[in-house]
Amino acid sequence: NTLAKAYMHNEQYAESEKLYLEILQSYGQNSDLYELHNDIGYLMVVQNRPAEAIEYYLQSLDSYQRIYGEDHPTTLMVMSNLASAYIETEQYELSEAILLRRIPLIKQRYEDVHWRVGSAIDGLGRFYLRLNDFVRAEEMFYQAETIYKEVLGPAHNWTAFTTVILAYCKAVNGYTEESDSLFLESYATLNSNRDDFNYYEEQMFERLLTHLTMHPMDTWHEKISLLQELVR
After folding, report:
1. Which residues lie below 8 Å from residue 92, measured CB to CB, with a gap of 6+?
2. pLDDT-based confidence at 115, cuts 50/70/90?
């Protein structure tokens, strides 16, 4: 299993898949190989095979829910993975149902105002953004930003990332003046922190730019260029 993971992270996908399938055959389909099923699901995703990933994520999720409960942290993670695979196969109703279900489960596990709740709501906002539903996306990003500001503080990078995309949604929805103000606020934070991004935050920043460039808007070309310069 460890060797299969190493192959996967080294992008030797055929070798990785061969080992994973050998393990599955050794243990049989009725075993609770929830971690293994999740890992194979991820292997399918990185090979752009989301339909196959769904099958493994469903098996993993079933085991985690039955053994550890619906609000277990890893159960919640697998739910997120499954929702992403549904998005890639354009099964949007199934994805939305999972993303909506995760939020009360995270609140149940932690508390109503927690960074994990903010992250789940932010993820739902990005889902609506993908569907070009900027009204609902704006509402989700506003809720996520409010939680991040309270829990992490206004100068935290996660807060700033969400504020940027909230500003973008407001611009699309016609609130130009408010959008500009929010962008300047978030850009100042990110510019101040530009030398302190950790690896995970760099990945978050790249995903943010991907979302913005998927929905080009003439009035935001200069703003996006400023953000891209920060990443560089």
Report:
1. 86, 127, 131
2. very high
